[in-house]
Amino acid sequence: MDSVPAFSEELASLAADLRRLRLERGHRSYRELAARAAKSRTGIRLPVSTQSDAFRGERLPGLDRLMGLVRILHSYDEFGQERPVPPHNSPELEPWRRRWRELAAREPVRHHPPPAPATSPRTPPAAPASLSPGGTGFVLGHVLTTRAGSNRCATFSSDGRLLAVAGDHGENGVVQLWDPLHGTALGEIVCGSGNLTLAFSPTGHLLATGGMDGAARLWDAVTLKPVGEPLRGHRHPIDTVAFTADGHTLVTADDDETVQCWNTSTGEPAGPPLVGHFGEIRALVCLPDGGILAALRSKHAMRLWDLATGASVGGPLTENITGPLSAAFSEDGALLATAGRNETLLWDTATGAPVCSLPKADDRRTLAVAFSRDSRHLATIGDDGTIRLWDPSTGAPSGPALPGPCDDLDRLAFSPDGRMLAACGEGNTVVVYHDEPYTGSARTPPLAARALDSALRERQAVALPPLTTETGVALRRLAFAPDGRRLIVRAQDRRILTWDPAERTPLLPEALWEPAGTMPWGLHFPGDGGPAALWTPAHRPVGPLTHPVSLIANVAFCAPVQQVAMVGPDGRVVVWNVAGGGAVVTRGPDAVSDVFALAAAPDGSVLAAAIDERVVLWDPAAPQRSGRVLDAHRSTVSAVAFSPDSRLLATGDVNGTIRLWDPTDRGIPGRRLSGHTGQVYDLAFSEQGHLLAGAGADGTVRLWNPATGEPATGLPLTGHTGSVRGVAFSPDASLLAASGDDGTLRFWLLPDPRGMRTARLG
To answer: Quick one: which H or E segment has residue 28?
Structure first.
């Protein structure tokens, strides 16, 4: 009877200890912690909402979110100074992991309402009584029939909007993509080899496959076309493919105990293969800190290896494994589930000790195991096709069994949010379960809504009516606030205007004016949802800059390292240390003068300055020895922009040519993107890096896929009657805004970057 009060009290105690740890480590703001996580290159993401929930004790965060927050807090010492982020298995983290498991065991069970009647033609048949919500609430969503005679693997994209299923069709392999929420087919990829294994990149724009021919292949998840040549290096069939947390590396492992890492940008091997007779790989996980942990079976023993170093981790977990074995890691690598002929066990990978054993159902053997990303659920599937869900912290069932419509299922996959579960196997059937009743509507959506939905599915940008300032004054650059609820626009008359992009109405003025003269300036957003604040060398805010943006070409912010680069009155670039009281840190190379446009890599490692037909790159910490000149334009470069991951630089010139460069490659000219017929005034990447937009003097906005260099829409986005001066994506990339000399703001609804609709309409 007291389980709910006990859970609430323990959750409040956990939140209090998190707040105390935050205070002890320098009392960093939410934005600082999020920036530190992004800068750490560990793959940890700390949205403000996650931090707020954890510090206030609003709800129990997922294990990976909690441990990510604790690791970032521990990346500061007791004096508040930065230190390396501790690895996931650091001893100082174990008490927090233990507390999460204890809390998760006490968390009250969620109850769902009974399924609503469904009469839509696409609605699946009513679920049997045994599938009704109870504990986990998973119910039958869809039974999909594929073209493959046998389905070998299934995986969800990082946002859960795509389900890829790989199987054999004749002598070829086929990968079919589905909308797992609505059960509709979206397309397919035909490969030259069967017996495929799959993995989506962390951003979801790439899909990797591995096959019987020993080759791995990369595919564009939007166009379903190959990206580069096949990655050949294995002499045996590939059993496993996985991306590292940053997406820069693909790891492949074959059935001859050979592991190879590949650079996803170049398609070249990232180091020599790891070859050893250390055992058959049964499970593999790429950790946020760069480690690659593998569970290896040798004879009757199971061991852990760090494939990044080639070293064994501890002793054997067990030496009495018999029969076929399935294994799976939790997302953070803290837990390993193994299923043998005799029993299914959970292991603590940090200590090598068993956590618990799952009860065995009669004489049934477990064929597959899978963790949800937050480690709250472990799914198993037996040789009778029955799927069971377990609480990994206790080994107790977390809901009723989910009988499948067939008994040949032997593969499992959770969606990243844990709200969908897919199962496939030797037949041509894929079963998708939802953690709440399917809510297909019996009402046919209005024709207009269906037309809009169709346009977005077909990757067409849909124009909205323009907005005009009350005086029709020309508009220059623009930027979205970090929460996407405001659009900040610089006008030619020096006003800084604010609009609500959803309601499409002007908001109350934020009392900001562009400084007079040539003084460098920018904006930042010091509070969650608060007004924008002005930054100039003479008006420096107290404390760190949070989400700074520049609306002029001669200022660039290096937010992670709290520096700002700007062009001074003499035309030279100066880098200021914001956190150090505004002191000048470095000056640009001697050759950098008369700069037309300036950009900073988001990770703060590189600055780019446009000078006539050249772009000069340099490390702001060592400007005199790290300069590099990009010299492939034939006219003055007028716009520069870095991708969010700092791996691409886009440059545009006055003749309308745009080039994409790898800032680290010194030998290859940037790929040319064509389309504009006049000067390129502005360039912008979407926050996910899937799209690049250019604003031109020809009155158009154009979109490209940076991964392929191909246009992302069939036609340019038109409507402006003069030059387009600024372009910006909303944080979720569902909306594109552009400003022009004609005094109008124009908006386009965008399809999902991976080819899916932005939202379900009707």
So the answer is: none
- 589 within a domain of the structure (yes/no): no
| Single-letter code of the amino acid located at 727 | V
Tokens of 227: 């990206």
Beta strand 475-480 pairing with 409-414? unpaired
Closest CA to 380 of 349, 357, 405: 357
CB atoms near residue 344 (< 10 Å): 23
Beta bridge partners of 623: none
Q: Provide the pLDDT for residue 444.
A: 47
Q: Side chain identity at 399, as an amino acid letter?
A: G
Please provide residue 32's backbone torsions phi and psi, each rounded to the nearest 5 degrees: -65, -40
Q: Tell if the pTM clears 0.90, that is, is over it.
A: no
390 and 258 fall within a common domain? yes
Which are the contacts of 748, defined by CB distance < 8 A and separation ≥ 6?
Answer: 461, 462, 463, 464, 701, 717, 735, 736
User: What's the rounded Cα separation, in Å, for the pair 657 and 680?
Assistant: 8
Beta strands in 551-674, from DSSP E residues, in sequence order:
555-558, 563-567, 573-577, 583-587, 597-600, 607-611, 614-618, 628-630, 637-642, 649-653, 658-661, 671-673
Domain hosting 710: range is 448-472+661-762
> Looking at the domain assignment, is residue 560 inside a domain?
no
**In angstroms, rounded to a whole number, what is the distance separating the alpha carbons of residues 378 and 684?**
41
Is 439 a member of any domain? no
Say yes or no: 672 and 716 in one domain: yes
Burial label, 1 (beta-carbon count in 10 A; 0-12, 13-18, 19+): exposed
Say which amino acid occupies 463. A
Residue 36 gets which letter from DSSP? H
Tokens describing residue 670: 């940037």
Residues 96 and 150 in one domain: no
The domain tally of the chain equals: 3
What does the alpha-carbon distance between residue 33 and residue 41 come to, in Å, rounded to a whole number? Answer: 13
> In the chain, what are the helix, strand and coil shares in percent, each to the nearest 5?
10, 40, 50
Look at residue 67 and tell me if it is in a domain. yes
Report the run of H or E that residue 95 belongs to, with start and end: helix 94-106
Quick: pLDDT tens for 472-524. 789 999 999 888 888 999 998 888 888 888 888 887 655 578 887 767 788 88
Alpha helices in 400-482 (DSSP H): 447-457
Cα separation, 198 vs 207, in Å, equals: 7
* 406 and 370 together in one domain: yes
